[in-house]
Design a protein that fits this description.
By secondary structure, the chain is mostly helical. 70% of the residues lie in helices and 0% in strands. The chain contains 4 helices and no strands. The chain has helices spanning 14-35, 37-49, 55-61, 70-92. The radius of gyration is 16 Å and the shape is flat.
Amino acid sequence: MTWMRQIHYYMGLYSYSYSASLTVATQAFLKIQSKGQPAIDQWLEFLALGDSLNPVDSAKAAGVDITTDQPLLASIDFLDQTVREIIQLTKEI
């Protein structure tokens, strides 16, 4: 019940902003894993933007196209795989 007392959860589009940010960050992380330094540079450029661009253009700067559901679905898949891996590793311990 503690989560219900957090007023910022109900302000504006908090849950959308949170999930969109998680999606963009997850996709950027996966790009960094696969592409290395070029993706790191792209992420740093994205961070330097602050709030100077709208969300779609900001995400594009990070190399993520949030105008489709692909990044969200890929992030859900990544998180699912991560949870499965944690469960397996826990069993091994």
